[in-house]
Amino acid sequence: MPTKSDEESMWIEGLVANPKKPKLNTTMKFLVDTGANCILIPKRIARKLKLKQVGIGTLTLADGKQIKCKLATAYIHIAGEHVIALVFINGNQPVIGFDIMSLLGLHIDLANRRLLRPVRLAKARIIQLSLSAEKLRQRQLRKV
Q: Is the full-model pTM beyond 0.90?
């Protein structure tokens, strides 16, 4: 998974597209912000992708200041996972917050400063094994 990390910031590459016109898309590097609960798309990118405004939202910055921003829906594809999400349109730097990372199943390895891929297949196998063990136990109880 393409990530870049420096001493103070972590970045991840992702694709953003217009959900109604997927050919209107671009790849960009997102600043990973675990303290944020939203995703920010720069105004110039929103214009390029022709993202349709669906409302106005209030964005609370780290310093507590609140600003009004346009809201739009966008298709987000990162690390083999995708979601259509509500995005704030503001600023010059793409930012991915904790909410989208959670929806995509991304985790952060803080010790090594890297993002980890979702582990859905392993989780599905564990559930399947648990169900199989339960069925076996029920069969054994029926024989008694």
A: no
